Amino acid sequence: MENITVYTAFNPMDAQVVRAQLESAGLHPEVMGELAALSIEGYSLAAGGIRVQVPEGEVADARELIDSWKAAPQ
Hints:
alpha+beta; Alpha-Beta Plaits; 4 helices
């Protein structure tokens, strides 16, 4: 099954927080592009960001969770 990007971050901490939240909800996220972003200053922006991906079957649930976090009052 193919992994689909559900969130893009420009710093590793942001990507890892989203990964941890999705994982705690029972999903199976992976963070892609994190090491490349850490190796060269500014590379994450040039490469299009650090991607949080989930399997195809979990995309709708992951996006719903991410959208609910964004909508929650800070």
